[in-house]
Amino acid sequence: MKSHQTTIIDIAHELKISKSTVSRALIGHPNVKHTTRMAVLELAEKMDYQRNMHAISLITRKSSTLGVIVPEFTSSYFPEIIIGAQTAATAAGYNIIISQSNESYETEVANTRVMLANQVDGIMISMTKETRNYDHFKVFQRKGIPIVFFNRVCDEMKVPKVVVDDYDGAFKVVEHLLSIGKNKIAHLAGPDSLSMSVKRLSGYLDALKKHQVAINEQWIIPYDLSIPKVSIYVNHLLNLENPPNAIFAINDPTAIEAIQVIKKAGLRIPQDIAVAGFSNDYISSLIEPSLTTMSQPVQKIGIKAIELLIDQIKRDVKDWKAVTHVLKTELIIRNSTLIS
């Protein structure tokens, strides 16, 4: 037997009012009496009525839905940001649609089309490592849909952004490694398509220059964030005629993989070679040795991105402000750099 889903016609019939009155009551139209609206809402709940959000969006021109696109879910970083975003969105009366691009530009483009099809009121995005063309993002601007970038941002577009101080964080990690006597510091860097990779590399280089430590180009290896490749690069560093005595990795997953490779090689961490990461991933405190890293206020990133998005939604397009909100990082020193 086919089940029947309650419609506004059923509610209208039960209350002996027009279906247009029911429709207006459900979206909070000011011309509906308070008593009528409460009667409609109470009956709708009793009859388990599910609102047709697409139909409502056609009437109000708002879906009360925000889109979130992230590049991956392999670490705890982006899920933590989404927790913050969900909290802020819910408090403001919005739902969110979440998709991940699996570090694929083509999937990212497809994800933006899904968001447009679902008529999101705004979207927050962290790009893939492959993204170098931004036309699929610019569609939102042309349609008057606010967009906020976070973590991995598009510098070409004048829109709000939420980032951490990548340069300062990297600078402080390298200074810490120098302070424990490690003056041969390698850097497993990210792709130069990501501004955060460029800023962390700049912080690394400037810290070495400040302390008059020679820069060895052999110890700087940019890579595409594909974790299986880390073992190749770390083994290469370890087998150099002049190997480094410390590794600063672009992120924690890279640093954690580097630790495994170094341990397999029979070297001691941090006595023979120290390791530091960036992001304070959940597992970084659980591995052996625990990982020194730069902690980022990840949930705050999600909260701030949603706040900026909603602020844009409330403004006329001509009043949109392309602000960049920079959050501070914090050095967390653990056993991978603690020399007793």
TrEMBL record:
Keyword list, A-Z: DNA-binding, Transcription, Transcription regulation
CDD domains in UniProt:
HTH_LacI, PBP1_LacI_sugar_binding-like
Q: Does the keyword Transcription apply?
A: yes
Family matches, as InterPro entries: HTH_LacI (IPR000843), Lambda_DNA-bd_dom_sf (IPR010982), Peripla_BP/Lac1_sug-bd_dom (IPR001761), Peripla_BP_I (IPR028082)
Q: Which GO terms describe its molecular function?
A: DNA binding
Origin, by domain of life? Bacteria
Q: Which residues form the HTH lacI-type domain?
A: 6-60
Cite a single Pfam family from the UniProt record.
Answer: LacI
Q: What is the name of the protein in this document?
A: LacI family DNA-binding transcriptional regulator
Supply the source organism's classification.
Bacteria, Pseudomonadati, Bacteroidota, Sphingobacteriia, Sphingobacteriales
